[in-house]
Amino acid sequence: MPDSVQTHAAPNPQPQDAFRIPRFAGLPTFMRLPMVESPVGIDIGLVGVPFDGGTTNRAGARHGPREMRNASSLMRRVHHPSGVAPYDLARIADLGDSPVNPIDVLDSLRLITGFFGTLKAAGTIPVTAGGDHLISLPILRALAADGPVGMIHFDSHSDTNDRYFGDNRYTHGTPFRRAVEEGLLDPKRVVQIGIRGSLGTANDFDFARAAGFRIVFIEEFAERRPEEIMDEARAIVGDGPVYISFDVDGIDPSQTPGTGTPEIGGYTTAEAQRMVRKLAGLNIVGADVVEVSPPFDIGNMTSLVGATLMFELMCVIAGNMKR
Amino acid sequence: MPDSVQTHAAPNPQPQDAFRIPRFAGLPTFMRLPMVESPVGIDIGLVGVPFDGGTTNRAGARHGPREMRNASSLMRRVHHPSGVAPYDLARIADLGDSPVNPIDVLDSLRLITGFFGTLKAAGTIPVTAGGDHLISLPILRALAADGPVGMIHFDSHSDTNDRYFGDNRYTHGTPFRRAVEEGLLDPKRVVQIGIRGSLGTANDFDFARAAGFRIVFIEEFAERRPEEIMDEARAIVGDGPVYISFDVDGIDPSQTPGTGTPEIGGYTTAEAQRMVRKLAGLNIVGADVVEVSPPFDIGNMTSLVGATLMFELMCVIAGNMKR
Amino acid sequence: MPDSVQTHAAPNPQPQDAFRIPRFAGLPTFMRLPMVESPVGIDIGLVGVPFDGGTTNRAGARHGPREMRNASSLMRRVHHPSGVAPYDLARIADLGDSPVNPIDVLDSLRLITGFFGTLKAAGTIPVTAGGDHLISLPILRALAADGPVGMIHFDSHSDTNDRYFGDNRYTHGTPFRRAVEEGLLDPKRVVQIGIRGSLGTANDFDFARAAGFRIVFIEEFAERRPEEIMDEARAIVGDGPVYISFDVDGIDPSQTPGTGTPEIGGYTTAEAQRMVRKLAGLNIVGADVVEVSPPFDIGNMTSLVGATLMFELMCVIAGNMKR
Amino acid sequence: MPDSVQTHAAPNPQPQDAFRIPRFAGLPTFMRLPMVESPVGIDIGLVGVPFDGGTTNRAGARHGPREMRNASSLMRRVHHPSGVAPYDLARIADLGDSPVNPIDVLDSLRLITGFFGTLKAAGTIPVTAGGDHLISLPILRALAADGPVGMIHFDSHSDTNDRYFGDNRYTHGTPFRRAVEEGLLDPKRVVQIGIRGSLGTANDFDFARAAGFRIVFIEEFAERRPEEIMDEARAIVGDGPVYISFDVDGIDPSQTPGTGTPEIGGYTTAEAQRMVRKLAGLNIVGADVVEVSPPFDIGNMTSLVGATLMFELMCVIAGNMKR
Amino acid sequence: MPDSVQTHAAPNPQPQDAFRIPRFAGLPTFMRLPMVESPVGIDIGLVGVPFDGGTTNRAGARHGPREMRNASSLMRRVHHPSGVAPYDLARIADLGDSPVNPIDVLDSLRLITGFFGTLKAAGTIPVTAGGDHLISLPILRALAADGPVGMIHFDSHSDTNDRYFGDNRYTHGTPFRRAVEEGLLDPKRVVQIGIRGSLGTANDFDFARAAGFRIVFIEEFAERRPEEIMDEARAIVGDGPVYISFDVDGIDPSQTPGTGTPEIGGYTTAEAQRMVRKLAGLNIVGADVVEVSPPFDIGNMTSLVGATLMFELMCVIAGNMKR
Amino acid sequence: MPDSVQTHAAPNPQPQDAFRIPRFAGLPTFMRLPMVESPVGIDIGLVGVPFDGGTTNRAGARHGPREMRNASSLMRRVHHPSGVAPYDLARIADLGDSPVNPIDVLDSLRLITGFFGTLKAAGTIPVTAGGDHLISLPILRALAADGPVGMIHFDSHSDTNDRYFGDNRYTHGTPFRRAVEEGLLDPKRVVQIGIRGSLGTANDFDFARAAGFRIVFIEEFAERRPEEIMDEARAIVGDGPVYISFDVDGIDPSQTPGTGTPEIGGYTTAEAQRMVRKLAGLNIVGADVVEVSPPFDIGNMTSLVGATLMFELMCVIAGNMKR
Q: From which domain of life does this come (chains A, B, C, D, E, F) (predicted)?
């Protein structure tokens, strides 16, 4: 395949050529892209947030970025169904990991917000590998600094609990309650898809409903086509800025076993791909793939799903940059 | 979450509060409920039968109760789709494990029947974690002591073989032939769902068919909605007493790999949940989840499915107790 | 089950009787059939090709035949949906493994072609356990020695690349371009089903399309019933000789994790079974199940899928032999 | 074995009889002993501290108590080399888990100290299953409330670092510096055995040495018999109260792979047993086994080592109670 | 390596040549030797006994023969330290598996004794892959039919318990009490090496000691060279017929994790090899390697140890046949 | 920890500071050092050679460099027993992976020699992560271009076979016969330590012995102290240039299970460390750690051993640079 890499436009960063350097060779940057230190001039930044200090049960998502990078070596250059060639359309790079403090939640929140503030300042759209779901809060603090954003949220949990273990307000079960309270999310422009699992109390969804979230429970999901649900979601979030948050436990745990709070009966990766592809054209300000927990993974199955979802999200965002 | 546990009615046993005691802490009783020694006064008893002496190939289901208890720590308090709050509606407890004899099949059958006889005498409905499928026979001997019951049976195998290895009548492939012969099952009120896999002989289903079982092969299942199939099953079992037996190998082995006799091409856990939920209102005298074999499991995936099915069955039965 | 094995017609080879010899006992030949040295007199030969020297990333398929044999002990004697009792209809045996050279690709190609030439000479139809996908090329060189054949090809990749790593023409990504170039495949009678995954370049399918392959991408697959797709495939390959090649990465990696190039979003094993069953009546000259890589497998899940697909293919071919 | 359990003195709690109830049955309390809620009247309390919030790299020790309980089902009743029958000599029970707060380090330290204060008040000697090594600090705050204690410390790390990640004083790398600073340990009566691994700086041991710890590096260990080293350790700690802390990473990671900071080249479990047995007769106020991290374990190997070490420590302490 | 296989004397069975047929190819017979149906004319028979019905806790040893066969493909042709070329010295073959009945202990005992009786009648010395340790009893019933034999027994347990679970006399904890009672073993010529682990009661060894067994506990083992211990063992068993029984749980569980009753602190595989090699010249009537339990194994580590011990034992016995 | 990294001499590359950036964060370069593209100015180059095309049985070592890099994040900055602070003494960096061709052995040999030729030209001493053992040959072709070197070789195999599979001269069993034939090794200055395992023929060591290699079989190793053996080895290799080759299968497979050709009964990692440390002061021209095969590894145990051995070798070489 002598004509592969060289034909790409020179200025954009390109992945290593798998026809010359085998996929198992070299450093596992995201998508085998160059790692750069500054977001300046980068359109889409692939970023890790290796933090799981908000996890109340089975942690391990701190190892998610490293293993999603590892698995992402299997991603190639072009998104077939859409025809998007992301590296032709956008300057994309691995921007490394956000600083975190593994033994201090509040310090970590500050560090993460600071890191993403730099991306926002540079005009770089982040596609983030978590980390547990608490990381979405400090990311939103950076990205929604100018005003609330909408959100399409794939998950089996609403993550709008209030407190745990006494008076703890910052856990991976509370980010979106905090984000609403802090004015980071416009609750009328929030859609949650795939919610399921047993509840702590019958009132678990009271906050989300009162705030105005649209919750698509898995039972509703099972009755409709993914595309239909996404059409509704697109109508709800509209043209304004929107954040995409993908918790891999939205997917069935047979496909994403490496996660801290698995709930059986989820959607498939194929359905997830169909939904993500329907995000094309939205005004996406950032995206994350969270709750990949390698110590609980088997055969790196979940890391591969996470890396593929990052690729899909990256292609959607790059496709928006088509001229 | 100051309003969670304390608001429950005092007399009913309650799980430990996960907002105060993390899910990984404490002893893994079923659903983190209290373990009690006597079934007296208990409406629904969660029970283990750690026996796999009827297994003709890959054993290990003896370890099922322990690992399903372990996985059940992830279950919370309320069944979302139905709104059933089981611990508000019924007195539910972990009743421990039935005595068994790991090296003597016939002694085990006696011990198990004795244990379940006590539950029946106390009016306690058992939801049992197996064990291999042979355990359904001694359970039925206790529960159907007064007369035959119907059965809805989820499985990839009919389990109506006659003999193995010479003249052995009691294996995990024979319980329901024995149960019919012994007058424990009313064969006209038996439905088997998900049957598939290669056959030993072309006559494998002769006994079941002659007896009057309704067998829904996986090929028929694939053509119909789970709810439709369950409507038919409900009509067949009617208002009389019915036993529910769920062999996890009915589900696809990618979702329940930890089982002794996997057959590819099964239904999904989501379909299983939809079917179990359609059991609401039936006159259920007991239920089991069998053939979870932890030594063959990966990432405790199958134990989680088993524990969740126990939760689902428990909620159906508790829902029947609504006043 | 005293009447099981003995009632079969004497001359045909029969699997060991699982009612007398447990499935975990004895040597793991394919389907617990006798292993014979010569194909003469054998209608269907189950064969291993333990070669993965064409693998450009994650190898291990050389161990596929051994582990598929191991898993095939779970197969019984009769195909339930079709009623085919293969060992009554055909003389079927394990013919052992083709010779290979693990450190020399070209020598392996020669050795494999030689081995399958002997089968062809004997009139034996091979059902092969790979090995990586490159092995289909030397098999076709033997089976299509008299003229091009059609092919129904289940896979996530088209495997029609040209060269890798300089000028290497023989890898598991190139067999079907070579087969067309060498006149082994009639490209107008080739159907590929399940193709997906990111592409190396936007032109990845140019060769296949120009040659006339019918490619059913996974997105199209998701919109149609498997039976519909197979009806079209049957029309395309017609009555002429056809080869069946099943790369297990066509299936979703949650069901076939043990493979070198997993792509999320695949079809299910149940859909695979439905498709394979629609091959009945075609003029099948041979079939393979490839890219089972045990070192990457978990819980032997993929080996079981591979062994079951071999059983399904064998039953289809035996069913054609019904008089 | 009809004479087994019943011959034991009635008042002492006894493990379940494995000749009647198989080891895989029932709840996995420590050593299959009764779980009791209050330490009053209990001589030796087996306790879990499911906390790993001090872990700076690979966490998971929060799951240690549950899996060590699980593995401890393999322990029987009598310590052969010493002849100690612990349940004849002492009242021993599973006292459950200390409360912890998985997302708040300082709150956890308070909760743990409170829990162990109750044991101390009751005169119960704890044998604790961690948790990461930070838990030894709050335990010492309770047990050394009356004055500093000595310590024999098995580990590959000295755990006397000062701060991490800015100004964080409480991690699993700092407990024994804090314990010295707080007057909980008498540094002249502290022995550390098995220290090894690469260092952060050449000054890593300055604090410990200046304070007066006796450090037995693994290189010295390799040159001497374990018994010799323990004779010296016994002389150093003398007759005063002494705490035993066993970090399983002191042992070679081929025997304790399930730990967060493995260092190759450690001592064997047999050597560990020989050392623990030499603790007999010391004035032991408590003991812990820490850093068992089940998500990183393989085949529960490390949990079994941890459970066995707890049994060995319990027998040493019970042996001291011989009249 | 053109001069390898062909130079061997024609009449003796030979393993497949790994310089021509890779080790991963072909059927996994023991040592890649031919499988033959009759022991007649075979000097040393490699045999499987896939039975674990005597296991009181963690079963799985029924799968031992298959996986030890699989692992034995790594064995080559010549024993380096002794220079023994077994296939030059003796006719050795894989004789397949003994018949067993997985759900009937007593029937299995009968079947196994029958099978080994045939070997004894043919003058074939068996080297057996278990199976749990109960299988040594029916083997001894065949091999010691003419009178009691001595035994060198490597194990962590004495296996001389009396009864379990009521009145059950036949479990993997009782074979050698039964063998003494039945006059199969001469208790004055029995040596047990490596015994350790916690005891059920202080009287656990009373039977063995009263009978006259020489027990080498692991504590004594640790103080002496393996060769010294074996010199004593050789003196004890003398020139009379002796059976060798190797329970892999004698070895440390970090080297043989795949076993049902692991006890930490065992000897190493290197020490095991040194001991086995000291058996040269004894009048060995048979040998077994038992308690390899593949479902609990990790990375086939234990199967490899088991297969290597079989090779070592086979070489010792073949070495005795040197002229 | 403001005083940690910054105090190091500015010009030398330094690992990331683990007191600020957690070990699980960031890209897994070797030892968390900077990756640089050119060897110019680098004293010691850490390099990967992801090639296993010479493996005749169980491959996977191609994935070794990636996973050894991953595991090397656990290495800190100072070698405690020697006091060597390598990054103070030498300019050390990750130089990335050598180019390889996964499907062409001869092309790979050329590419590897070319890559290491560049290092030699720059005066950079390579410490290499393999790859299978064949890679030592092309490395020696570069490093011994000026004349033969000595070698200290840790392994369970002599790797001096001649041919495999017909006439194949280049496999992981043949590199050191080729190296002698090509004049790259001075056979009188070669020491092999740990050799063991069954042999293909009684003549397996004829070449090595005739050439003059000193072979320390494991039986001899067991009788002597590692330091003694190394004193002899040092005398043999003398002051001339010497290459160090460490095949992790020299170590016992319970400590390095992730390797292609495990042989039980090896030395321990502690013994390996003691031997490597005795290399100090030798005129080392390069070193490799080979045959780490991640697909066969469990819990990354072998990768950690491999990474630690690289650290040890690097420290020895850096220690030689002390002024």
A: Bacteria
